[in-house]
């Protein structure tokens, strides 16, 4: 059982609700990390999200109360949110979709001092769609939030353009690495994982994240054609579940691609340590969790060269033209053929990651925002 330490200055425990929408990859990983850090600081945390998010990230294992909420904001989902919000001091929505789901419920729930319950929103990604309706929804959310946190400068600027009263930069730290064993144990784990996947004598390319449109796995399957005829034949392993699993599997079977959809796995750190190349084909997340985890773990990474990712990854990754399967395939094959380059990236990754904010700093920044909007005048002692 998780023990919650007493809150600072004899106050009642701060109560926060974290809201996630469907397919919120970066948001879900951040909320899992944030939950553990907040609970360690005496905050009571409720997570409202679609059930698969709990299966993947284990919020209850971190000490949170979990409220399953359907991906669509139907009456049942809105009722579940309303019940969770009634006991909250602050609501924190992760992503525009989650924020829009929370907004109508917030109009019907009062905060602990009788006023409107404060809403904090973190923007993890830019919208893929464009147009007047997208701008209108973003504007509604930006103006409804007490504070909008953007994980990169571009998203902060976007929130300000949409009319946010208060928009701040809040980079999200990658989940902390697990404590590993000695070198011999690492070698044994690597051999075991490769044997299980059937890649003892062939290269392993790894991708991970929900099987959703935003991740651009079709682009990765297009790229896999380039190495399907190579010997030894590289295997692409994709970790995760989602609504596009059946469609992706049909492509794999029909086109006879060397790709394994591995489903949910709890051993992503071991897979990162085992992979010859890690691929992040999507271009819509400003700070993809897999990209951050790969660099921190010293795994050679291929990723799309968007402005946000170029800033995040620096020289520690092989960058490709966004949306270009040929560029992606060339980068993967180039790394597989160049052990020295892979070694150089494996060395550069942890050095680049050393400049990123830590999980502790990320939690402290978010908690200071909660205190500001939920408890004006509160002076929290440093953690």
Automatic annotation (TrEMBL):
Which residues lie within the region annotated Disordered? 166-187
Q: Which positions fall inside the Glycosyl transferase family domain?
A: 195-349
Which UniProt keywords are present, listed alphabetically?
Glycosyltransferase, Transferase
This protein's record includes keyword Lipid metabolism: no
Domain Glycosyltransferase subfamily 4-like N-terminal, which positions?
Answer: 28-173
Q: Which GO terms describe its molecular function?
A: hexosyltransferase activity
Please give one Pfam family short name: Glycos_transf_1
Tell me the GO BP annotations in alphabetical order: carbohydrate derivative biosynthetic process
Where does the source fall among the domains of life? Bacteria
Protein name according to UniProt: Glycosyltransferase family 4 protein
């Amino acid at each position: 059982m998780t023990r919650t330490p007493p809150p600072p200055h004899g106050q009642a425990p701060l109560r926060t609700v974290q809201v996630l929408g469907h397919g919120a990859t970066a948001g879900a990983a951040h909320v899992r990390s944030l939950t553990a850090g907040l609970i360690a600081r005496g905050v009571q945390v409720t997570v409202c999200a679609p059930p698969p998010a709990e299966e993947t990230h284990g919020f209850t294992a971190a000490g949170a109360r979990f409220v399953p909420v359907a991906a669509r904001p139907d009456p049942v989902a809105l009722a579940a949110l309303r019940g969770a919000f009634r006991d909250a001091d602050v609501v924190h929505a992760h992503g525009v979709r989650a924020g829009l789901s929370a907004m109508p419920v917030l109009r019907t729930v009062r905060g602990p001092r009788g006023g409107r319950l404060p809403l904090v929103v973190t923007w993890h990604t830019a919208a893929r769609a464009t147009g007047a309706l997208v701008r209108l929804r973003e504007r509604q959310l930006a103006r409804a939030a007490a504070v909008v946190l953007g994980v990169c400068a571009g998203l902060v600027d976007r929130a300000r353009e949409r009319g946010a009263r208060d928009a701040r930069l809040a980079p999200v730290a990658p989940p902390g690495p697990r404590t590993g064993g000695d070198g011999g144990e690492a070698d044994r784990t690597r051999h075991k994982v490769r044997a299980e996947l059937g890649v003892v004598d062939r290269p392993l390319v790894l991708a991970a994240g929900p099987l959703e449109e935003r991740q651009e796995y079709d682009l990765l399957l297009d790229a896999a054609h380039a190495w399907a005829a190579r010997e030894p034949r590289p295997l692409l392993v994709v970790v995760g579940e989602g609504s596009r699993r059946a469609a992706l599997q049909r492509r794999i079977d029909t086109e006879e691609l060397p790709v394994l959809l591995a489903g949910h796995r709890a051993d992503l750190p071991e897979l990162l340590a085992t992979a010859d190349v890690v691929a992040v084909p999507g271009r819509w997340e400003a700070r993809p969790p897999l990209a951050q985890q790969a660099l921190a773990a010293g795994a050679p990474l291929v990723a799309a060269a968007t402005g946000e990712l170029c800033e995040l990854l620096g020289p520690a990754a092989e960058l490709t033209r966004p949306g270009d399967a040929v560029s992606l395939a060339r980068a993967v094959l180039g790394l597989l053929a160049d052990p020295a380059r892979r070694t150089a990236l494996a060395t550069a990754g942890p050095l680049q990651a050393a400049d990123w904010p830590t999980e502790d700093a990320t939690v402290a920044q978010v908690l200071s925002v909660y205190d500001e909007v939920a408890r004006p005048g509160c002076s929290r002692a440093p953690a």
